[in-house]
Amino acid sequence: MEAPPKRLKNSRQRDLILCILRSTHCHPTADWIYQKARKEMPNISLGTVYRNLNLLREEGKINEISFGRGGNHYDADLRNHYHVRCIECGCIEDVLQLTPEASSERIEQITGYRIHNHRLEFMGICPRCQENSKNASI
């Protein structure tokens, strides 16, 4: 049996980073978090942000989302949910109308596997980019 993750002492930097992540729904990159954190803690370094993001992920307090190109994004919403990514601007949003649990249950019924996790990526063009494209062609 796997040992539970070691509980880390709180740090002001880690608390700030977690607060920033919990206050947004935009699934930011480490650089975006770094820029926000510097407004409250000017001496924080990008390395500190990365280190604390890794610690928060290891503690199970945040999720790391990787879409391949463009770096990793971070999500403090720990509910099991899907994401949609704009192929124009890179914006990532939650898709809460679909339930991953229902999909997993169906796959378990079909295959006999016990599903622990799965990943499904939706990609498209967000409404803002669609509007910008429409306005650019007028």
Q: Indicate the CATH class of the largest domain.
A: Mainly Alpha
**Mean pLDDT score:** 86
Q: Based on CA inertia axes, which overall geometry fits? A: flat
How many distinct beta strands? 5
Structural domain count: 2
Characterize the quaternary organization of these chains: single chain
Task: Report on the architecture of this protein.
The protein folds into 2 domains: 9-78, Orthogonal Bundle (Arc Repressor Mutant, subunit A), CATH 1.10.10.10; 79-138, Ferric-uptake regulator, C-terminal dimerisarion domain (Dna Ligase, domain 1, 2-Layer Sandwich), CATH 3.30.1490. It is an alpha+beta fold. It has helices at 12-22, 30-40, 46-58, 100-111, 127-136; strands at 63-66, 72-75, 82-86, 92-95, 121-124. The chain is 41% helix and 15% strand.
Topology (elements, then pairings):
Blueprint: H1 12-22, H2 30-40, H3 46-58, E1 63-66, E2 72-75, E3 82-86, E4 92-95, H4 100-111, E5 121-124, H5 127-136
Parallel strand pairs: 3-5
Antiparallel strand pairs: 1-2, 3-4
Helix pairs in contact: 1-2, 1-3, 2-3
